[in-house]
Specification:
The protein is built from nine helices and nine strands. The protein has helices spanning 14-17, 20-27, 64-75, 95-102, 119-125, 141-152, 198-201, 205-223, 225-229; strands at 2-7, 32-37, 50-51, 61-62, 81-92, 106-110, 128-131, 190-191, 194-195. It has a five-stranded parallel beta sheet with strand order 2-1-6-5-7. It has a two-stranded antiparallel ribbon with strand order 3-4. A hairpin with a 2-residue loop joins strand 8 and strand 9.
Length: 231
Amino acid sequence: MRIDILTIFPDMFAGVLNESILRIAREKGLVEFHLHNIRNWTEDRHKSVDDRPYGGGPGMVMKPEPIFRAVEEIAGEPQEAEKILLSPQGEVFSQKMASELAARKRLIFICGRYEGFDERIRLGLAPREISLGDFVLAGGEVAAMAIIEAVVRLLPGVLGDEDSAKYESFSSHTGEAKMLDYPQYTRPPVFRGMRVPEVLLSGNHEKIRKWRESQALKKTKTRRKDLLDKK
């Protein structure tokens, strides 16, 4: 298996990938890791990977351009690569999902920071969104490390066959009920034919608030209806 990791903090992975099960799997030739700094695919002198969100609001949003460039250059020709976006809005990770990913030949992890990703990254790259649970981390790096370890330890030859039955499926604790976040956008206003919704460019804060509420509700009903059932 080949695992590519896109991040703005590649040094965070140095210790994790070179210790314990992950080191053993790599030394056995069962997995190879490739770390990529997203800033290497920026084109401005400041190597900017984020910008202010359209419609206002706190924090910064990850820009689409460098992430698209990075994924397209790294992925090359399709080789059964599964693109994974680490996000609190994604499917809750489970042992069943770890088994599914362990069957793939190649995984590409996209680690975000700040307030999240420009929605066009989700729309254009169509990654599989995965969350560790109903809590928020400072970025996707720690989540990626956890998922990578859970997946790699299931590869044939990493652990002895006698250990396989011990790691089948685990229940998850979902915590308090909350709605998922609304879609985020930042510059440019049009990217590869995908436009920022006009309401976010209107300057009408009440319309923007209502749009965000409706989008958050729609996304939660579609992806995590169980959160609404807890209210």
